[in-house]
Amino acid sequence: MKMSPFDYHRPDTVDEALALLETYGGDGKVLAGGQSLLPVLALRLTHLGHLIDIGRVQGLQSIEVDDDGTVSVGATVTHARVERSDVMAAAAPAVAGAMPHVGHRAIRSRGTVCGSLAHADPAAELPAVALAVGAEMIVQGPAGQRTMGAGDFFEGYLSSALGEDELLVGVRFPAWAPRAGWSVLEVSRRHGDFALVGLVTTLEIDEAGLLRRPALSLFGVASTPVRVAEAEQLLDGNAPDPALLAEAAKVVSGALEARADDHASSEYRAHVAGVLTRRGLAEAAARATERAGV
Amino acid sequence: MREITLRVNGRDEHAVVEGRTTLAEMLRDHLGLTGTHLGCEHGVCGACTVAVDGQPVRSCLMLAMQAEGAIVETVESLGDGDGLGLIQQAMWERHAFQCAFCAPGFLMTVRCLLADNPTPTTAQIKEELSGNLCRCTGYASILEGVAEAVAKLASAAGGANDA
Q1: Which of B61, B65, B113 sits opposite A38 (nearest CB)?
Q2: If both were cysteines, with which of A5, A108, B97, B102 could A79 make a disulfide (CB 3.0 to 4.6 Å apart)?
């Protein structure tokens, strides 16, 4: 028995979950897949009086694509479901493409997309994907529902703008552009480990073959995922030739004030971020070109 | 404390558990199914992997109450009485394990993989097993064991088709 005792609650509806959060939110947490929360409890890094298991809450299990191509993913949709979903592969390929990097198979069986976002681990893939594509968090609380852009949502290490009495009921990924490409790359000690440095790249290639709306979203380097605006501006409107990609890589390495820890120095992380930038841009541009050609 | 019901290895089982009781603890301590091993107990080693509704799951990272009503299969489901199941036999023939503490997790991961994809490539096998740690034999013999299981499965399927 590794975890300290807590009361387990299993609401059936969002309203019940919110009522429980209102009562216990200060001393409780939402439990979805539990693949981040239960290790934290097992290691006794924190103590909680109450766990509110939303695993069986009605209406949070769906993956939906609107007419305009916006993809909504409910709070209890697992990584495994996204990984196997043809709908996600077609409508949100950057999200689907991140899945093989998330933990291991057994972790993905239980872990959820929204759980990963709410946990806000800066070394995790999904927050960086959300930041790259401009995902919207759908947050419900006592005052009703509100949406929040990914840029406002991730506030710090394991810390989001989600209130104690609020539930992340879903996430919306904007429609995937016809000429868009993506790349998710990471360097970690072993496959499935958290990334020392990771990069989500999304971009579009216009009719003239020029880069549009490039996004470089790094993870594992700071207390939140970070975009590198300076490099994105450099890329926007230019042809993705090797010289430009090398220049962007240099800008990323230079702009980054990467964290240092036992696993990697700040200099190492900045260097790897540059290398990944070059590779990520090339891979995303190739995917965009291939897609535009079809 | 609450009583929960779930189906384990084809039998309906009941147990009275605390909120913090993990599925692994329930299987071992309440149901006596000690084939499921607990190594790290925080989701890193994979020794406690079982199948929940057909999917591989870390039973140390799932609360027993979360598994209420689920269909759970443990390593005990693989054998046939005293006989080894196909995957176990293949692993045994290839000397896959030494101390075998990790074996239940590997076996259940392989069982879920082969149920999903009976003809995985070596790359797919490595990817699927990447969440299970072994400290004795290393991984080469385990991969050979899985390859042997794939071969046995293919010939069993071939035999069935012939008949």
Answers
A1: B61
A2: A108
Write out the H or E segment, with its range, that includes residue A250: helix A242-255
B59 touching chain A per CB within 8 A = no
Q: What is the pLDDT of residue B159?
A: 56
Residue B42 to residue A192, Cβ atoms within 8 A: no
Domain with B111 in it: what CATH number?
1.10.150.120
Enumerate residues 6+ apart whose C-beta is below 8 A from A40: A46
Q: Which domain holds residue A92?
A: 63-173
Spatial distance between the Cα atoms of B159 and B86, rounded to a whole number of angstroms: 14
Quick one: tokens of A148? 């929040």
Distance CA B35, CA B27 (A): 9
**Is this structure's pTM higher than 0.80?**
yes
A51 touches chain B (CB under 8 A): yes
Domain boundary among B49, B77, B105: B77
A27/B contact by beta carbon, under 8 A: no
Predicted confidence (pLDDT) per residue in A276-285, tens digit: 999 999 999 9
The model's pLDDT over B65-114, given as tens digits with 9 standing for 90+, comes to 999 999 999 999 999 888 999 999 999 999 999 999 999 999 999 999 99
Would the CB atoms of B130 and A39 count as touching at under 8 Å? no
Residue B25: list chain A partners with CB under 8 A: 1
Q: CB under 8 Å, gap of 24 or more: what pairs does A97-101 form?
A: A97/A182, A97/A183, A97/A184, A98/A125, A98/A126, A98/A129, A98/A184, A98/A200, A100/B127, A101/A125, A101/A184, A101/A186, A101/A195, A101/A198
Q: Which of B57, B61, B106 to mutate to test the interface with A (most CBs of A within 10 A)?
A: B61
Judge whether A1 lies within some domain: no
Taking contacts as CB-CB distances below 8 angstroms, the residues of chain B near A110 are 57-58, 61-62
